[in-house]
Specification:
mainly beta, 9-stranded antiparallel sheet, 6-stranded antiparallel sheet, globular
Length: about 280
């Protein structure tokens, strides 16, 4: 089922499957990738309770081994609609017998979508309903439609002029890094950047990235809460993903212990984790 929210400037449509944003429209254009499976059949999945890939697709907790596939299970599960108004909606996913098989923790995950003027605000709330600490990672994976030739687009970083990113190898995060030198804080997009999969940033000075089309700003993604970031597309695909994360893929040296995983959030019992990012239309 799809849920639509709107205000005078924008309309957002979210699927109850994965609480996934599938459309963000102004009166001028669509900004979210259409999900053509020829390239990538998703639009903007939520990544929970892991981001990226675990070594051997598994982790250890209190002596037991559990399996979790890439990016976790939340994106494939049906969320409940907890509250809805004209310009806002709250989706909820709670732990169940199904989730406990691979993730032995009691939780509630809420995704809150709110339209405000020319901006869509996406809030994440993780509630620890367990009697023990809750380890998790969480992240966004929005794909933004680029209808013109890919070379017509660039990314403006609000702070950085030089970027260090980590390279993925077999879906795991290697120790190898590479540098990107920007021109006046701007990265011009070209497909060879993504021949080895996503660009993964562990640390950025920038907390906002603007997508430019023919040198004109069209979208601004702000992610002040998030320590990590991925940027990704597929070669020849007409979209770009700007992905704010808490956490990232395992490294080949990872011990497998979920409580020791690099970038993992450890939420105390009865506590609530909250973070948000926004997508602002600037064209």
């Amino acid at each position: 089922m799809n849920i639509a929210i709107k205000n005078n400037n924008l309309t957002a449509t979210i699927s109850t499957k994965g609480a996934e944003l599938i459309s963000l429209r102004s009166d001028k254009r669509e900004f979210i990738w259409e999900g053509n499976p020829e390239f990538w059949g998703k639009h903007s999945p939520v990544l929970f309770p892991i981001v990226g890939t675990l070594k051997d697709n598994s982790y250890n907790y209190l002596g037991d081994r559990y399996l979790l596939s890439r990016h976790g299970f939340a994106r494939d599960m049906v969320f409940d609609v907890k509250e809805q108004s004209e310009d806002s909606v709250i989706f909820s996913l709670q732990s169940s017998e199904e989730t406990l098989k691979n993730y032995p923790f009691a939780f509630e995950l809420q995704l809150i979508y709110t339209l405000y003027l020319d901006k869509l605000i996406l809030q994440y709330k993780v509630i620890n309903n367990d009697k023990k600490e809750l380890p998790f990672s969480i992240g966004a994976h929005p794909a933004f439609a680029l209808p013109k030739d890919f070379s017509n687009y660039s990314l403006s970083f609000d702070e950085d002029n030089e970027l260090e990113y980590f390279l993925l190898e077999n879906d795991l995060l290697s120790d190898r890094t590479s540098q990107l030198n920007l021109s006046k804080n701007k990265l011009h997009l070209h497909y060879p950047l993504f021949e080895n999969d996503a660009l993964v940033f562990k640390k950025l000075q920038s907390k906002a990235i603007t997508i430019n089309e023919n040198e004109q700003p069209i979208l601004k993604i702000s992610f002040h809460d998030f320590p990590n970031l991925g940027i990704w597309t597929k070669v020849d695909a007409p979209f770009i993903c700007i992905e704010p994360w808490f956490g990232h893929s395992d490294t080949p040296k990872n011990s497998g212990a979920i409580m020791e995983k690099e970038g993992v959030v450890i939420l105390k019992k009865d506590k609530i984790f909250e973070s948000q990012f926004s997508i602002e239309i600037v064209c």
